[in-house]
Amino acid sequence: MPKKLSLYKSAKTERGWRYCKAAFHSNAKVKPNIVLVDGVEEKHAEGSYFTLSDNQWVALGDDALDAQRELMAMNAQREFQRLSQNPQQRESTVPAVSNGRKLICEEIERYLEGLVAAKRPAKSVRMNRNFLNAFAGVAKKQYTDEYGRDDVIAFRNDLLSKGYEHKYIDTQMDFVLTFFKHHLKRPIVMDRGDRLKVAANPPEPYADEEIIAMERTATGKHSLLIRLYRSTGCRLQEISHLRSEDINIHTKTMLIHEKPCKDCADCRAQGNKWKPKTTAGTREIPISDAMVAELLALGKGILFPDKHGKVESHMLREIQGAVKESGVRKVKMHRFRDTFAVNKLRDGVDVRTLQRWLGHETVEQVMEYCAWLDSQSEAARRHANKEDTRYRAAALPAPSDKLALAEKQVQMAEMNKQEEEEKSTTSKPASPKTAKVIPNDSVGVVVTGTPCL
Hints:
By secondary structure, the chain is an alpha+beta fold. It has helices spanning 64-84, 104-117, 122-139, 149-161, 166-183, 208-217, 220-232, 236-240, 265-269, 289-296, 315-322, 333-346, 351-358, 364-375, 378-386, 402-426, and strands spanning 8-13, 16-24, 30-37, 40-43, 49-53, 56-61, 97-98, 101-102, 247-248, 253-256, 259-260, 273-274, 283-286, 434-437, 445-448. Strand 7 and strand 8 form a beta hairpin.
């Protein structure tokens, strides 16, 4: 396995300019302008960030976070190239089998090779490597036949103790169980209750005030991006890979489809191609006349490139920075998608059409938006508020003496009078006759309507 590249910063120390290792927080995030000089942290605002690759210093820029992201991309690419090599050419530190038993570390490497050969996205390969190595590190067992249900539970409990969310933990458990079932052909059977309960995330559309605030705050291409996301319901990478030739000036539509791309690690892993998330993701989405004109005015090629003219890999961060002063909390890309779906359902678009526009595989995914919208409708509020008055008359205290009886009769008369006034203000019918009904308990109750003889 190739050695990972390290992050350095050129700093002017007491002994002159030197390449000093960058300092990091406990969560592995770089500390801006903090370097290690003889093992001691010092602040140095001067100088740029570098890494040493193949005995050559490679510049990574002046910004600490950008330099760290660039370094992580370089390390991921080196690891991807290593896994892409022929197994006979790649150096192996351990034998595949020892005493007739398979070693867990070597089997993980073989599994990752298979994922690369199948042209799985680099992100998927990276997540499998991190999760499986973390699992093996917790169990600390050498052979694959030593692992079982108790090890998966121990891994789950270790993640719980570190404060990870249930959904994230459940995802890691899925990766481990898939590895044992499909690669090792030794499925680990979990008991009922071993898996964590994960609640489905309800739709979280932006309020109208939030959309207005963001569009007023953002300017230039960021304002256009916000309007494009909330009016098309596209996923993040569908817009970041959008090209001028995807806009049809005649049909006023935007085409989401497979296209060449060498800028992203995931695209390179899939044969230098960007592909929609699902088969249904290939689709045409109608856009407004004004939006067509704005998009075509951006020029040829990638419509929203980064500063190097390549696919923007930090579009969410760009938008969050542009709307920081709007006061909107939880700015997330999927909330634009939720907003689009809810708005179209309110406009009367049928679920099948909306399913096609969103690129969903099944209509059940769209029905989740319908269920959420029903729970937020005015009819739902009317039915809920009706419970405040449903048993108001029956809740009156039972008469115990003549005074209580008189009070109840007055209250009932007031209620009847109020109902009559409400009716007269709407349709103004003729004054109904009233009848006095005397129940068996000798309590007089006034009932409106025509008496029956």
